[in-house]
Design brief:
Number of strands: 11
Order of helices and strands: EHEEHEHEHEHEHEHEHEHEH
Mean pLDDT: 89
Strand order of the largest sheet: 3-8-7-4-5-6
CATH class of the largest domain: Alpha Beta
Shape: globular
Largest sheet: 6 strands, mixed
CATH architecture of the largest domain: 3-Layer(aba) Sandwich
Structural class: alpha/beta
Distance between the termini: 6 Å
Number of helices: 10
Number of domains: 2
Low-confidence stretches: 83-91, 156-164
Radius of gyration: 19 Å
Helix content: 25-40%
Strand content: 15-25%
CATH topology of the largest domain: Rossmann fold
């Protein structure tokens, strides 16, 4: 049985990347972003971001909640502290923490040395803050400063915080319990996408034709429900890359919800078995 059509709902940059990867594996994948991402426009947040960039070497580590956090923190050029001539890479104090391989890839793309990047073990059950902490906990000493680079919801009430939101708060508590100091900075803004008529039609069709919605954010699930008010999701199928996202999909009414690790191989295997 052929694999189902897959609707990739990540923000536009990541959705295009994942759709291409899946297409290379023979999966019929379409990008339909459910989160719009852009630079943060709040003047105070922009000022704090600029100051964080200047003070980067003062931090023991920077934790980037997503690839978009990386892109908007560095914008065009990386100013990651590099080893001086004759100095070993291990002499660089500042580390870059990535909760998953997509964020790690974004760090490498902006010029952060791979040797400076820490992330979950490749075989971790999930790519999230809990799995990341297992790898980096030993780095923190009393007084160390850690900067968490995040996004901000553009919804009026700041609602729909994603699983990254709860994860980063959990991580902050672990850092503080180890004697570290946690600071937050907003690098980008998230909001609901503005769909074209064709995209609305695609979403309505995919709600009932057996397509498989690849969901990687609880916030995206909320945006989907808001974009199609009154839509019945009982016949819809979803593949969620985290238990909290699966819970959100079930709460939204999806009739069939499966879970898998967010690694490409696991996603492809789950799609093929869902055919």
């Amino acid at each position: 049985m052929p694999s189902p059509r897959v609707i990739v709902t990540r923000p536009a940059r990541e959705a295009a990347h994942w759709a291409a990867l899946l297409s290379e594996r023979g999966v019929n994948a379409l990008a339909l972003p459910l989160i719009a991402v852009g630079p943060c426009t709040d003047p105070a947040a922009r000022q704090a971001l600029a100051q964080a960039r200047r003070n980067l070497p003062q931090y023991r580590a920077l934790m980037f909640v997503s690839g978009n956090a990386v892109v908007h923190f560095f914008e065009s050029d990386s100013n990651w502290p590099l080893a001086q001539e004759g100095q070993a890479p291990t002499a660089i104090k500042t580390r870059a923490w990535a909760p998953g391989p997509g964020t790690a890839r974004a760090l490498e793309q902006v010029g952060v040395p791979r040797a400076a990047v820490d992330g979950p073990a490749p075989d971790a059950p999930q790519f999230d803050s809990e799995a990341l902490w297992q790898q980096v906990a030993a780095q923190i000493r009393p007084g160390d400063r850690v900067l968490i680079v995040r996004g901000r919801s553009a919804t009026p009430q700041g609602a729909h915080e994603s699983e990254q939101g709860s994860g980063r708060e959990w991580l902050a508590r672990q850092i503080e319990a180890a004697g570290g100091q946690v600071e937050f900075v907003v690098a980008y803004q998230r909001g609901a996408p503005q769909w074209s008529g064709a995209e609305v039609a695609l979403a309505q069709q995919a709600a009932q034709d057996g397509s498989l919605w690849l969901l990687s954010s609880s916030e995206a699930v909320a945006h989907l429900a808001e974009a199609l008010p009154g839509q019945h999701w009982g016949a819809a199928r979803a593949l969620a890359t985290h238990p909290r996202i699966a819970e959100a999909a079930r709460a939204a009414g999806f009739g069939n919800v499966r879970e898998c690790r967010p690694a490409l191989e696991d996603v492809v295997a789950s799609i093929e078995s869902a055919g």
